[in-house]
C-alpha cells in the first residue's frame, strides 16, 4: 500500500462528481458553515440550470468530470447508484491513493467502490434528504485504507449539513431503513396529524402548520432535552387527560409496532437491492 499523506485540513480542494441536489446541499452547507470557501469547491455539468445553481454561491463549474478529479484532493461521488460503477471505472486512471474518495450513493458497497477505483482509500456516507435544510442525519463508514484523519475530515465536512455518526458498513442497510427512509414516515405522520386537525374542525393551513411545528418541536426536545422519549411522553400525558386518551388509540392500533415494521421492511429491501 502506498504511503498515504494526510489531506491538508484547511487548504484542500473538494470536488463533486454529479451536480444534483445532494451535492448542492453539501456544498452550500460547507460554504455557509465556513468549513471551506466556495473557491475550493468544484463540480462539472453542462446544463445551464445546474451550473447556475452552483455558480450562484461561488462554486467553480467545469465541463468534464476528469477536470474535477484532477483539480481536487477530496472527490465525492454523488451520482445515482446505477451509474456509480461506470463513472468510477471511467475516472479510475485519475483516482490515485493521494485522493480521498467518498460515495453518497445509496446501497453501493465499499468493497465494490474500492475494486472499481483500484484502491481502498474510500469512505461511504449515508446522508438523508433533510441535508437540503441543514439538518441531515449522516453516517460514515471507512474503507480499508481510509485513515482516522480521513474520517475526521469527512465528519467535519458532513457536519456542515447536520449531525454525523460513524458506524461499521454492515449496519448501513439498517441505517437506510431508519434515517434514509425515515423522513418519508415522518411526512406521512405530519400529513395524518394535519388531517386529524381538519377532521376536528381546524382550517387546513392552520392544521398543517401546527402539525409540522409540533413534530419539529418534539424532535428538538428529543435531540436536545436530555431526556428519554418515553419520559418526554410521560411528561405530556397527565392522568385522565387528553394526551393519554390519544396515546391509548395509538396503542390500540399498534402504532409503535407499525413504525418498527416499516424500518425493518426498508432495511430488508436495502439488503436485497445491494445484493442484486
Q: Write down the overall mean pLDDT.
A: 94
Provide the spatial order of strands within the biggest beta sheet. Answer: 3-2-1-4-5-6-7-8
**How large a portion of the residues is in β-strands, by DSSP E?**
5-15%
Low-confidence stretches: none
Q: Could you say what the CATH architecture of the largest domain is?
A: 3-Layer(aba) Sandwich
Put simply, the count of helices is: 12
Largest sheet: 8 strands, mixed
Looking at the structure, the CATH topology of the largest domain is: Rossmann fold
Family: Belongs to the pyrroline-5-carboxylate reductase family.
GO molecular function, one term: pyrroline-5-carboxylate reductase activity
Subcellular location: Cytoplasm
Keywords: Amino-acid biosynthesis, Cytoplasm, NADP, Oxidoreductase, Proline biosynthesis
Please explain how this structure is put together.
This protein has an eight-stranded mixed β-sheet with strand order 3-2-1-4-5-6-7-8, sandwiched between helices. By secondary structure, it is an alpha/beta fold. The chain has helices spanning about 20-35, 50-55, 65-70, 85-90, 110-115, 150-160, 170-180, 180-200, 205-225, 230-235, 240-250, 255-275, and strands at about 15, 40-45, 60, 75, 100-105, 120-125, 135-140, 160-165. The protein folds into two domains: about 15-170, NAD(P)-binding Rossmann-like Domain (Rossmann fold); about 180-275, ProC C-terminal domain-like (ProC C-terminal domain-like fold). It starts with 13 loop residues before the first strand and ends with a helix. It is an enzyme of class 1 (oxidoreductase).
